[in-house]
Design brief:
36% helix; 305 residues; single chain; seven-stranded parallel β-sheet
Length: 305
Amino acid sequence: MTGPLEPGSRVLVTGSAGRFGRSVVAELVAAGHEVIGIDPAPGTPVGCASVLPADLTDLGEAYGVLSRFRPSAVVHLAAIATPFSRTDAVTYRTNTQLAFNVCESAVHSGVRRVVVASSPTVIGYGAPHGWRPAYLPIDEDHPAEPWNAYSLSKLAAEQTMRTFARAAGDRIKFAAVRPCFVVAPEEWKGAPTQSGHSIAERLDRPELGGVSLFNYIDARDAAEMLRVLLDALPELPNGEVFFASAADALAREPLAELLPRVLPSTAPQAAALTGTAPAFSSAKAERLLGWRPERSWRTELSTEI
């Protein structure tokens, strides 16, 4: 297994109907791949060769899906996507079981490349009894300090991925991506984001985005990063983790000035964020993958809303 995925390769995308999944499907289809969507939610993404509403929390169904389609690569996005949207027990059980079942069935079905979606929440921002970053901008070496079931489940998904990577050696290549607050194309035009607020509201009310350090990324940029990562996997150390962030912060003011007002605990580190720099760094993805985000709220946000 060397080099990029050949055009026409079959790629299975779990969570294909989600706000991120739709852009991932579009990116992979545009690259010439045959995309299989797995999602019990309605909304067949344009370009999918097939969509199956399977429940991947059931290991038997996961095995059935992977053995039926025998993809060359799997992009695992399916999850309860936001903290506190379900009970803690359901969130943790669902997200960890999904990650295990997908990795387990992929290993036994001839899949050669697997990418698992994680989250920046593993860093621990928003903890109810206080949190401060070790440094800014935050990169993949920053300590992980999850404090709720969602962030814990995402860190567990990363560790699950790495466990399978250690067991597989170089026979199967794994990686995880921590995409920042994903903004789907329609959300630039005023559709509600995953938090229920519009992008304009998040910009106008810093307290909404401040708890997550004003992080974001356009879904299309994150999808491109996943495609590039799939191509590069054979040449990377197994089990790598990457942040995927926009090149700027989702804020009208520099974070060096704004963060200390919204989150006083960040004041000692915020001075390192000059200009429009974001709190999360994608420098590792640029260094190892040659990927850089192209879109910014400054160019994408509709002026008609």
